[in-house]
Q: What sequence folds into this?
C-alpha cells in the first residue's frame, strides 16, 4: 500500500518565516519590463528547443491498453480496447543518486520509434508545479543542483513554493515506475454536443511500492537534498540497475488517467487553467484511460533513444493558456525545456554489467523478382529477460539480401533469455526498398537453442515477428506476446477493411488493384506474366486479323480455324474431332465433366412450367417406363438457368432463360431430351427434342450453352469461387494473427485471391469497355446477375457431399460417369483428413475451440461482414461450436479455394475455345418456330469474329497456370515450425499422390480425360 502522507509545508512555512499563510495570497508584484522580456525569451526558447533527445535515466518500452470508454475523443490514439506501443523515459530532474531527494520525471510517447510521437507528454512528481516565475525557476534549478541556500530562499519566498517542493520531491524511491506523475497542463477539445471539455493527464504507479515522499522531518528542510546515509544503497550507485531489473523481470504496470470538466464559455477561466491549481478530485475524478505495461529497457544509445517533442498535438486538441500570457503561472506550459536541460550527474545503463552471448542469424530472402532490398536492415531480439539493441545486418563488401539469398550474421549481445520475438527494421533504400523476407532463424550459441521466425511477407518498414510455433490465443500466457498478437491484428484491421455488401459476398475496401497493400498484390513476375499472356494473344489475334474482323464466321469449320490457332489441348481436340460436340452424348458429358459441372440436378416430379410429355419423348426413353416413372427411378435430370431471370440484356444481344431435361440411358450415357428456351410454358417457348430437325436441335442446345456460359462465368466461377474465397481471405487477415494455427494453415490457400479479384473488378466487371461488357449478353448488368446467384447462396453449398445430396446427384449408380463428383469427393475426404490432423494438433477439446476468441471473431465476421444473409438466413454459422465443426469448416474452405475453383476455372480454355459449342452471346433472338434454322441463321446468331476471338483469348488467359504456381499439398512457405506439422503435410502429400494415380488410371479408360481435379493441377488458392 502506498502510505498515507501529509504535506505539512504550510505549517513549517509559518514556523520558519513567522508569517501567516492565509495572509499571503498574491504572489506579489506583477512582472516588470525586464521580467516580462525574460518570460518571453523563455517561451521562445521553449518553442524552439523543447524537443529532442534526453539521455538521462532509463527509457522503457511497453504497451498501453486503452479502456473501453474514455471521456475524451480518441484523437486517433486512445482507440477503445486497442493496444499501442509506448515509450517512457524516466529520469531524476537533477540528481544522479536515488538516495537524494529530487523531482522524478517521465516522458511518454505513443509509438515505438525514434521520431516524435503524435502526442508526447512530460510528467513530474508532485501535484502542484514548482515552476512559478522566471527568477525562482532559475533559483530553483540552481538550488536543486548546487546547494540548499538558494533553494531555501526560494521555498520561503512563498508558501506555494514550499508546498510544491515538499509535494514533488521523492527521496530514496525503490525505482521510478511506482511513483505518481502529473502533467499539469490543461488541454481542451470540443465535444459532439459542442461543449468545451477541459482535461488533464497523470501517470500513476500501481502496486504496493511506497512512493518515498518526504518524511515529516525531511519536510522541515526540504532544501536539503542530500542523502542521509542511512539507506542501504551504495553512495556510488543509483537505482537504475534495480529499475532495469524490475522492468525486465516483473513488467510493472502503470495507469494513464484523465480528469475532465466541461465549460460552456468560449474560453477557459484562468483559475481552472492555472497549472498550480489542483482540480478538486470529487468534482473531477481521475478516470482510467489506459493501463500501461512496461516490458523492456531500451538500450541507452543515441540510435535507440526516442526523440520527444512537446509541441505536437493531435488534431482537435488545444493547449489552454492563461488570459494573461505574462503571468508566471503560464510558465508551466513552457516548462519542458527545463526538463531537457536541468540534469544532474551521469546515469547510464553501461554501469550495469550483462552476461553476453553470440547469436547466429540466418536470413532468407524471397525468390520473387525484386525480392531483395537495398535498404538498411536491422534486427532487435526480444527475450524473456531483456532485449538487444538494433543490430544492423551487414557483411562488408557484399550485397546483402539479394533475391533468393540466404545470409548469415553473427551478433554479440547481452543474452536475452528465451527468445520471444524479433523486430526487423528497414531504413533507407528508397529504390528497391521493399523486401520479401521469407524467414529468420536465430541460434543462441550460448544456450545452443534455435528459434524460427517465419515471415513470408513483403516488408516496407518495421515488422514484429513472433516465433513460428502456433499458439491458440487463450493458451498464450506471455503478456508481451499477447500484446504482439493484438497489435498485429490491430494493424491488419487498419489495412484490410471490409467493403460490406448485403446482396453479394463482401470484399476488401479498395478501389483499385494498385491501391492494395503490397503484401496482398501479386509477386512482380505474376504481374508481368499476366501482361505477357495478354500480349501473346493480342499478337496472335492480330496476325490472324480476328480482332479487326467484325463479320460473322462462315461455318463451323471457320470457327475451328480460330480454335486451331489458339489452343490444342487434349480436351479441346476431343470436343471438335469428328464433330463430336454436336452429339447428345457429348452434351451430356460436358454437363457432368465440363466447365460448369454444378448445374445439373435431379428432377423427381413433372414441372408445370416445363410441360414435357411422354408423347414428345416417344422412342427417346429406353426403359419402357413413362417419364414420371423414369423421374421416380432417378433417371431424369434438369439444367435450370432461372438465375438469369430478371437480368437486363444488352440491346444487341440475346439470352434466354432455358430449361433442359436430361436422361440417363440404360447404357449410362446422359443425354438431353427436351429443351425449353424460357421459364414458362407460353406458346413462344417451344419444347425442342431430338425428334426435331438436326440443325434445329443443335441450335436449341447451343442456346442452352450460351445460358450456361453466363451462369458459369458470373455465378459458378466469379461469385462462388472468387468472391466467397475473398471473404475467407479478408476475415483471416483481419482476425487471425501470424501465430494462430488456422492462419498458418489457411494463408497459403488465400494467396493472391484478393489480388485476382481486384483485377477482375477492373478488367472483367469495370463497366463499358471491360471484358464481360464486351463479351456477354448481360454486359453492364453483371451485378444484378450476381445478386440473383447470391440470393440462392447457402453455407451448405460449400460442403461438397451435402451439395451433391442437395442436387440429388450423389448416387453413382443412378448417375454414372460424373467424374467431377467422384474426384471432388476423393479430394474432399483427403483434405478433410488433413484438416482434421492439423486441428487435432492444436485443439484438444471443444472447449479449446469455444475459448479461441480469435477464431470466434473470425467466424463472426464471415457471418456478419462477409457472407451477409440477404432474404433468408443463409446458414452461415455465427460461431465455431466444436472440434468437428472446425474441421468441417476448414475442409470447406480449403476445398473451395483449391478444388472447386480448379474445377470451374481451368477448363475455360478447353470448352470456350470453340464458339458454336459455347457462344459467349447470341446476336439474334431465340427461335420461335421449328424448321427455320439454316447454317446462315445459325452463323448470324453466333458471335462475330472479334467477339469470339476476345472470348477465346480471355478464356485461355483465365485458365493459364503461372510459373510460380503452388499446387495442393505443397507448402513451400513453412509457416509452421513444428515437426509434427511436417509429418502431417507429408502424409497429405502421400494421399494426394495415391489419388492422382487412381485418377490417371481412370482417365486412361475413358474417351475424354477428366483432369481438372488431378492434385498436381489444383493450385492451392484462387489466384487466377
Ligand atoms: Fe478463376
A:
Amino acid at each position: 500500500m502506498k502510505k498515507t502522507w501529509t504535506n505539512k509545508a504550510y505549517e513549517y512555512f509559518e514556523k520558519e518565516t513567522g508569517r501567516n499563510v492565509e495572509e499571503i495570497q498574491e504572489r506579489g508584484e506583477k512582472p516588470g519590463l525586464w521580467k516580462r522580456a525574460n518570460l518571453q525569451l523563455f517561451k521562445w526558447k521553449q518553442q524552439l528547443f523543447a524537443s529532442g533527445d534526453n539521455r538521462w535515466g532509463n527509457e522503457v518500452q511497453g504497451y498501453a491498453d486503452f479502456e473501453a470508454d474514455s471521456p475524451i475523443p480518441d484523437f486517433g490514439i486512445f482507440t477503445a480496447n486497442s493496444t499501442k506501443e509506448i515509450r517512457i523515459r524516466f529520469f531524476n530532474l537533477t540528481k544522479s543518486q536515488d538516495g537524494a531527494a529530487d523531482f522524478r520525471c517521465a516522458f511518454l510517447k505513443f509509438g515505438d520509434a525514434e521520431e516524435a510521437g503524435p502526442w508526447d507528454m512530460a510528467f513530474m512528481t508532485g501535484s502542484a508545479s514548482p515552476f512559478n516565475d522566471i527568477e525562482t525557476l532559475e533559483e530553483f534549478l540552481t538550488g536543486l543542483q548546487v546547494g540548499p541556500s538558494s533553494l531555501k530562499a526560494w521555498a520561503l519566498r512563498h508558501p506555494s513554493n514550499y508546498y510544491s517542493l515538499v509535494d514533488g520531491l521523492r527521496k530514496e524511491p525503490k525505482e521510478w515506475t511506482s511513483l505518481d506523475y502529473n502533467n499539469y497542463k490543461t488541454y481542451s477539445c470540443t465535444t459532439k454536443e459542442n461543449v468545451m471539455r477541459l482535461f488533464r493527464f497523470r501517470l500513476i504507479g500501481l502496486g504496493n511500492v511506497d512512493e518515498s515522499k518526504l518524511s515529516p522531518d525531511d519536510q522541515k528542510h526540504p532544501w536539503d537534498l542530500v542523502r542521509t546515509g542511512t539507506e542501504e544503497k551504495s553512495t556510488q550507485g543509483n537505482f537504475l540497475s534495480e529499475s532495469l531489473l524490475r522492468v525486465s523481470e516483473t513488467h510493472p504496470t502503470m495507469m494513464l488517467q484523465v480528469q475532465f470538466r466541461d465549460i460552456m464559455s468560449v474560453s477557459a477561466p484562468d483559475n481552472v487553467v492555472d497549472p498550480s491549481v489542483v482540480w478538486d478530485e470529487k468534482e473531477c475524478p481521475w478516470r482510467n484511460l489506459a493501463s500501461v505495461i512496461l516490458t523492456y529497457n531500451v538500450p541507452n544509445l543515441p540510435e535507440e533513444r526516442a526523440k520527444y517533442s512537446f509541441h505536437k498535438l493531435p488534431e482537435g486538441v488545444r493547449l489552454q493558456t492563461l488570459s494573461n500570457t505574462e503571468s508566471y503561472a503560464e510558465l508551466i506550459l513552457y516548462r519542458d525545456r527545463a526538463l531537457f536541460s536541468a540534469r544532474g550527474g551521469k546515469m547510464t545503463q553501461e554501469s550495469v554489467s550483462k552476461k553476453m552471448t553470440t547469436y547466429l542469424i540466418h536470413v532468407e530472402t524471397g525468390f520473387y523478382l525484386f525480392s531483395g532490398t537495398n535498404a538498411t536492415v536491422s534486427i532487435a531480439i526480444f527475450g524473456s529477460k531483456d532485449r538487444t539493441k538494433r543490430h544492423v545486418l551487414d557483411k562488408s563488401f557484399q550485397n546483402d539480401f539479394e533475391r533468393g539469398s540466404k545470409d548469415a550474421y553473427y551478433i554479440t549481445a547481452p543474452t536475452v533469455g528465451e527468445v520471444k520475438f524479433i523486430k526487423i527494421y528497414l531504413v533507407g533504400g528508397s529504390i528497391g526498398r521493399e523486401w520479401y523476407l521469407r524467414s529468420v532463424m536465430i541460434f543462441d550459441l550460448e544456450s545452443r537453442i534455435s528459434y524460427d521466425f517465419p515471415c513470408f511477407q513483403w516488408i516496407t518498414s518495421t515488422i514484429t515477428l513472433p516465433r513460428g510455433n502456433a499458439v491458440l490465443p487463450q493458451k498464450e500466457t506471455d503478456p508481451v506476446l499477447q500484446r504482439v498478437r493484438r497489435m498485429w491484428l490491430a494493424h491488419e484491421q487498419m489495412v484490410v477493411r471490409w467493403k460490406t455488401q448485403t446482396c453479394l459476398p463482401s470484399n476488401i475496401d479498395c478501389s483499385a488493384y494498385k491501391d492494395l497493400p503490397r503484401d496482398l498484390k501479386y509477386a512482380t513476375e505474376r504481374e508481368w506474366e499476366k501482361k505477357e499472356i495478354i500480349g501473346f494473344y493480342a499478337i496472335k489475334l492480330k496476325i490472324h486479323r480476328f480482332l479487326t474482323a467484325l463479320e460473322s464466321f462462315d461455318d463451323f469449320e471457320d470457327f475451328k480455324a480460330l480454335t486451331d490457332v489458339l489452343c490444342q489441348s487434349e480436351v479441346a481436340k476431343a470436343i471438335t474431332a469428328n464433330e463430336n460436340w454436336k452429339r447428345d452424348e457429348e452434351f451430356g458429358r460436358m454437363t457432368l465433366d465440363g466447365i460448369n459441372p454444378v448445374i445439373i440436378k435431379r428432377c423427381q416430379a413433372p414441372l408445370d412450367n416445363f410441360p414435357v410429355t411422354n408423347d414428345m419423348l416417344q422412342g427417346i426413353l429406353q426403359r419402357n417406363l413413362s417419364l414420371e416413372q423414369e423421374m421416380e427411378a432417378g433417371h431424369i435430370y434438369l439444367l435450370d438457368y432461372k438465375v438469369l431471370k430478371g437480368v437486363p440484356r444488352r440491346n444487341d444481344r440475346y439470352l434466354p432463360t432455358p430449361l433442359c431435361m436430361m436422361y440417363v440411358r440404360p447404357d449410362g450415357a446422359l443425354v438431353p431430351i427436351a429443351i425449353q428456351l424460357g421459364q414458362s410454358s407460353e406458346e413462344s417457348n417451344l419444347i425442342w427434342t431430338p425428334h426435331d430437325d438436326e440443325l434445329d436441335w443443335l441450335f436449341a442446345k447451343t442456346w442452352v450453352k450460351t445460358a450456361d456460359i453466363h451462369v458459369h462465368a458470373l455465378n459458378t466461377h466469379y461469385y462462388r469461387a472468387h468472391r466467397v474465397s475473398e471473404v475467407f481471405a479478408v476475415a483471416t487477415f483481419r482476425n487471425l494473427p501470424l501465430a494462430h494455427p488456422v492462419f498458418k494453415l489457411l494463408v497459403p490457400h488465400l494467396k493472391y485471391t484478393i489480388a485476382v479479384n481486384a483485377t477482375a473488378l477492373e478488367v472483367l466487371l469495370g463497366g463499358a469497355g471491360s471484358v464481360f461488357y464486351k463479351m456477354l449478353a448481360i454486359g453492364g448488368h453483371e451485378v444484378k446477375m450476381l445478386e440473383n446467384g447470391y440470393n440462392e447462396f447457402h453455407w451448405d453449398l460449400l460442403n461438397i457431399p451435402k451439395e451433391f445430396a442437395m442436387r440429388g446427384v450423389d448416387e453413382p449408380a443412378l448417375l454414372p460417369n460424373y467424374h467431377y463428383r467422384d474426384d471432388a469427393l476423393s479430394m474432399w475426404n483427403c483434405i478433410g483428413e488433413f484438416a482434421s490432423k492439423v486441428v487435432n494438433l492444436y485443439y484438444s477439446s471443444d472447449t479449446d475451440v469455444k475459448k479461441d476468441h480469435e477464431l470466434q471473431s473470425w467466424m463472426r465476421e464471415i457471418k456478419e461482414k462477409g457472407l451477409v444473409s440477404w432474404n433468408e438466413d443463409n446458414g452461415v454459422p455465427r460461431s465455431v461450436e466444436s472440434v468437428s465443426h472446425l474441421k468441417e469448416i476448414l475442409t470447406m474452405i480449403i476445398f473451395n479455394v483449391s478444388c472447386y475453383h480448379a474445377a470451374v476455372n481451368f477448363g475455360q480454355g478447353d470448352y470456350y475455345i470453340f464458339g458454336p459449342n459455347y457462344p459467349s452471346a447470341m446476336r439474334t433472338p431465340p427461335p420461335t418456330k421449328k424448321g427455320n434454322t439454316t447454317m446462315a441463321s445459325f452463323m448470324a446468331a453466333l458471335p462475330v469474329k472479334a467477339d469470339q476471338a476476345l472470348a477465346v483469348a480471355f478464356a485461355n488467359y483465365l485458365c493459364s497456370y503461372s510459373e510460380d504456381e503452388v499446387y495442393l499439398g505443397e507448402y513451400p512457405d513453412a509457416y509452421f515450425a513444428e515437426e509434427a506439422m511436417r509429418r502431417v503435410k507429408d502424409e497429405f502429400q502421400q494421399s494426394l499422390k495415391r489419388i492422382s494415380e487412381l485418377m490417371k488410371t481412370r482417365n486412361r479408360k475413358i474417351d475424354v480425360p477428366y483432369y481438372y481435379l488431378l492434385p498436381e493441377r489444383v493450385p492451392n488458392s484462387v489466384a487466377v
